[in-house]
Amino acid sequence: MFKHCPKLIALRGLMLAGCLVILVGCAGTANAPVTSNSTATASAPATAPAPAKASAPATTSALAAVPTNLTATGGNAQASLAWSASSGATSYHVKRAATSGGPYTQVGAPTAASYTDTSLSNGTTYYYVVSALDSTGESANSAQVSALPVAPTPTPTPTPTPTPSPTASGCGMQLGTTAVTFCETFDAPAGTGTRSGDLNGNVWGVSRAIGDGVNFGQSWYNQWNATTIQKCDGTTPTVNAPNDVIICNGQLREASNDNNSGGLDAGTVTTLAMYPKQPFDFAGRTGTVSFDVSNDGGNHSVWPEFWMSDLPVPTPFNHFDSWQALPANGFGIRFAAFAPIGQQGSCPNANNINQLRWTLESAAVVRGYVLDDTNGFGTRTAMNVTILDCVIESSGPGNMNHIELRISQNQIDVYATDAGVAASPATLKHIAVITNANLSFTRGLVWFEDVHYNADKILDTTRPSQRQHTFSWDNVAFDGPFTYRDFAYDALDNTLPGQNGAVSLGKFSLPTQTSSWNVAGMPANRQAAAARVLFNFFGNDNPTTLNVIVNGHTHSVPWPYPDQITNTWRAFAVTIPLTDLVTGTNVVQLGADVAEVFSNVDIVLVNVPGGVPVLPGSNNAYPD
After folding, report:
1. How many CB atoms lie within 10 A of CB 182?
2. In which element (H, E) is residue 599 found?
3. Do 374 and 386 contact (CB within 8 A), yes or no?
4. Given phi > 0 = left and psi -120 to 50 = alpha, else beta, which region is 52?
5. Contact (CB, 8 A) for 94 and 115
6. What is the model's pLDDT at position 61?
7. Taking a C-beta distance cutoff of 8 angstroms, is the pair 549, 514 a contact?
8. Is 88 helix (H, G, I), strand (E, B) or coil?
9. Is 363 helix (H, G, I), strand (E, B) or coil?
10. Is the alpha carbon torsion for 218, 538, 454, 394 positive or negative?
11. From the CB of residue 32, how many other CB atoms can be counted at a distance below 10 Å?
């Protein structure tokens, strides 16, 4: 315990006062060193003189860096700004001025290093600076930039390439209401080594089928008869397919023979079908198809038919209910009602009764593979043919009737001229109308077919048999719109010799086996909306599964038809991936779980980019 001593406390006070006096005096000399012991320093009061503390530097936090690399791009009534992010910045102030150098008004406070200033006036220049902010405050402004908002330049509407209209010396369409988008005048042979003979294989496809030309035991596999053909020079050589399709004197001629043995009344049903590989579209409108043909046939003999199919399946056709090579959706028109001289026949009047005449005989519509035939076959509906007039018959190849079809989804009107009469609205006669057609498609391929029905039986005793017969065709056309072009590649027909100069065009496959077909000419740049394998097949029994193999890629397709009719030709298309195909030659194998004959095999590339309408002077090669 310490003892309280008042005198000692007083002495200590005097000593402390003395020290303070000395320290104050020393502070007056800035350069003099200050010397003190630790005891003196510790005894200093808490409040030190201000001059002693003023010599220590102040400590502060640095502001965010000024934004750099500012850019501004004018748009439509806006400016887009961007800059390099400032280290430590938590947000930015975007400032705008109407004049260079300011004054600036803040227009945005983004947290990212970009900003879009909207609702500006196009054609006015705006000036921008940006500052950065952090917890200690706001940086100085960046360097100034400017932007000029402008309205976008309108994209000009491309001027469409004009589509040539038909001329008097061209396709001669009279009733079309839009531009012609397909016109073929057969000016010169253009064969490309396909099944199409003298026709350009890039434009046309040809297929052939015969009714009694299949006999498994006798190796008849679509046995197509040799035939004479009436050439433009008057000669009639005997030819086999594909030389039964020729072009001469600016017209197409083709011929077929329905009688192999030559015996009287020993003929059968045949069809030679030709189609252009460009679809005809009548969606929402009444479209027009026109053509010339030398219709010099007779009842139970030969006649031309017009077909449409939703897909380009070969030989779309039916003969009563026994032959049903039906497309999934389509229709056919038979120009097969003939009136002998002096007889009215099916004609509703006696006009020109002293001459041979013809008109529409019947029509068939197919909806989902279901046949509706005005001859009374299939599932009948209210679809009906009304005969309105007849025209004078052709005297033979070169002397042609001009035919125009006005096609809409529910009605088809048929017009024709007398043979040898130039087409005009005045010379076209309205010969028939098909009502309540109720077509189940609005775009498809058009087919021109030469049909025989045991032509020895021509029901006109004044005329000879037409078992071997030649038709001429010309000026095939249809109106727009143009949609696209297909490019199809044929497997060449088989050349197995048959009876009496005939050739089997098809091939046979045993149950669970396949026939093999080479499809040449496939381009390297295969661009298309789809690829399909097309073919006809015929069997004594119906398969449950069809097998299509393309370059080793197998596609098994169940029986597609609602009926079970046997011993008939069928027409079918199988969609395959484009990746199945190779450049050059493709190998297609076709078979089923029962024995079948296959014929008219093709691969089609659908809707090839760059395809152009087929018109006089157009480039019909595959587009590069």
Report:
1. 23
2. strand 596-606
3. no
4. alpha
5. yes
6. 58
7. yes
8. coil
9. strand
10. negative
11. 10
Amino acid at 378: G
Amino acid occupying residue 463: R
| DSSP per position, 416-484 | EPPTTPPP-TTT-EEEEEEES---S-SEEEEEEEEEEE-GGG-S-TTS---SEEEEEEEEEEEES----
Spatial separation of the C-alpha atoms in residues 384 and 373, rounded to whole Å:
9
Tokens of 265: 């009344």
Contact 273, 448 (CB under 8 A): yes
**Alpha-carbon span 303 to 248, nearest angstrom:** 21
- The predicted model scores a pTM of 0.74
CA distances to 305, 359, 361, 387, 432 from 349, rounded to whole Å, are 23, 12, 15, 10, 13
Task: Determine contact, residues 584/522, Cβ cutoff 8 Å.
Answer: yes
Determine if the peptide bond prior to 316 is cis (ω within 30°).
no
Rounded to whole angstroms, how far apart are CA atoms 311 and 327? 7
Distance CA 241, CA 244 (A): 5
Cβ within 8 Å of residue 622, ≥6 positions away: 202, 487, 523, 608
- Give how far the C-alpha of residue 315 lies from the chain's centroid of Cα atoms, to the nearest Å: 23
Rounded alpha-carbon distances, angstroms, from residue 203 to 228, 272, 621: 26, 17, 9
Is the bond preceding residue 481 a cis peptide, omega within 30 degrees? yes
Structure tokens that stand for 435 in this block = 């009502």
Are 335 and 295 contacting, i.e. CB atoms less than 8 angstroms apart?
yes
pLDDT along the chain (624 residues), means of 10: 36 34 35 35 39 42 85 92 90 94 93 92 93 91 92 56 42 93 96 96 98 94 98 97 97 98 95 98 97 96 98 97 97 97 95 97 98 97 97 97 98 98 96 98 98 93 93 97 96 95 97 98 94 97 97 97 96 97 98 98 97 94 90
- Look at residues 390, 395, 368, 391 and name the one whose alpha carbon lies nearest to residue 379: 368
Give the three-class secondary structure for 391.
strand
Tokens for 138, please give them. Answer: 């706001």
Helices (H) and strands (E) in the chain, counts: 3, 47
